[in-house]
Design a protein that fits this description.
This protein has 2 domains: about 1-90 and about 200-250, 3-Layer(aba) Sandwich (Rossmann fold); about 90-200, Rossmann fold (3-Layer(aba) Sandwich). It has helices spanning about 10-20, 45-60, 70-80, 90-100, 115-120, 120-130, 140-145, 150-165, 185-190, 200-210, 230-235, and strands at about 1-5, 25-30, 65, 90, 105-110, 135-140, 170-175, 195-200, 225-230, 250. The protein has a 6-stranded parallel β-sheet, with helices on both faces. A 4-stranded parallel β-sheet has the order 6-5-7-8. It is built from 11 helices and 10 strands. Helices cover about 40% and strands about 15% of the residues. It has about 260 residues and is α/β, with parallel strands linked by helices. Bound molecules: D-glutamic acid (DGL). D-glutamic acid binds near residues 36, 38, 39, 70 and 115. D-glutamic acid binds near residues 71 and 178.
C-alpha cells in the first residue's frame, strides 16, 4: 500500500498523477488539515509535523511513501528525512530531474514561504544544471484561498497578482506547491503560453511507477482511503471527482464523514 501526505487538498494533484500510472495501487491519503497551511510555519514547527506524518504512515501499513507536500520535502532537504521503513519519494528531486531533462535555463518556482526560504528548489536544480537561473517566488495567498474554496474571481485576482511578479523571459514555471496545479487553468489564463508549466508530480509518479516494477507496494485493488486531521465534511465535499465506490473516508479522530 502506498501512503501519501499533504497538509490538505494539494495532495489530490499528486494522487491524480499517481492514479494515472498505478491504477491498481491501494493508496492511503493523509491530509493534516488541522495544521494547514504548512507554508507559513517555521522549520521548528514543520520538522515535528514531518516526523509525525512519516511515522503515522509507517504505523498504518504504508510500504512506500509518496510525498505530496513540497514544504515538507524542503524541510527534509535541510534536516534530512525522518527514519522510515517505507521508501520515501521526494517531489523536489523529481521536479529538478524533469527540469534538467528538458534543459530549461530560466526557471521560476512558485512555492510556499517555507519552501522558498529553504532554497531547496534552487539547490536541486542547480546541482543538475549549474548554469540554470532559478527564481524562487513565494505565493502565500494561494493555499488559504484554495483550502477555503474561495470564489474563483478572488483566486484569479491572486493568480494575476502573482503572475505579474514572475519574470517574463522564463522557459518554465514549476508548481512548487501541490495546491497550485488545482488552479492550473487560472495560470494558463495569465501566463504566456510559451512558458512550460511543470507539475512535479508527473515526474514523481514516473519514478514511483519505475520502482513499483520491482517492488510489491503497488499491487492492490485500486482503493483509496482518505484520512484528515481536520474537518472531514469539507475535505470530501471538495474532492468529489476523487470518489469511487471503493473509496473510504475516515477522520483521524475516528468520526466518519457524511456523504
Ligand atoms: N501543498 C503543500 C506544499 O506542496 C503545503 C501547502 C501549505 O500547507 O502551505 O507545499
Amino acid at each position: 500500500m502506498i501512503g501519501l501526505f499533504d497538509s490538505g487538498l494539494g495532495g489530490l494533484t499528486v494522487l491524480r498523477r499517481l492514479r494515472e500510472r498505478l491504477p491498481e495501487a491501494d493508496i492511503l491519503y493523509y491530509a493534516d488539515q488541522a495544521n494547514v497551511p504548512y507554508g507559513d510555519k517555521s522549520p521548528d514547527e514543520l520538522l515535528p509535523l514531518l516526523h509525525a506524518n512519516i511515522t503515522w504512515l509507517n504505523d498504518h501499513g504504508a510500504d512506500a511513501i509518496v510525498m505530496a507536500c513540497n514544504t515538507s520535502c524542503s524541510i527534509a532537504s535541510l534536516y534530512g528525512w525522518p527514519p522510515s521503513r517505507a521508501p520515501i519519494f521526494d517531489l523536489i528531486e523529481a521536479a529538478a530531474e524533469a527540469v534538467a531533462e528538458r534543459a530549461y535555463q530560466r526557471i521560476a518556482v512558485i512555492a510556499t514561504i517555507a519552501t522558498v526560504r529553504s532554497g531547496a528548489y534552487g539547490r536541486a536544480i542547480g546541482a543538475r544544471n549549474p548554469s540554470a537561473r532559478v527564481f524562487e517566488i513565494a505565493a502565500p495567498a494561494l493555499v488559504p484561498l484554495i483550502e477555503s474554496q474561495a470564489a474563483t474571481a478572488d483566486v484569479e485576482a491572486a493568480v494575476a497578482e502573482l503572475c505579474a511578479q514572475i519574470p517574463k523571459n522564463i522557459d518554465a514555471l514549476v508548481y512548487g506547491c501541490t495546491h497550485y496545479p488545482l488552479i492550473d487553468d487560472l495560470f494558463a489564463l495569465h501566463l504566456d503560453p510559451r512558458i512550460a508549466r511543470i507539475d512535479p508530480a508527473v515526474a514523481q509518479a514516473a519514478r514511483v511507477y519505475r520502482a513499483a516494477q520491482t517492488a510489491q507496494f503497488a499491487n492492490g485493488r485500486g482503493a483509496t482511503r482518505y484520512v484528515t486531521t481536520g474537518e472531514p465534511d469539507s475535505f470530501f465535499l471538495s474532492a468529489p471527482s476523487q470518489r469511487s465506490g471503493r473509496d473510504s473516508r475516515v477522520n483521524v479522530r475516528g468520526s466518519v464523514p457524511r456523504g
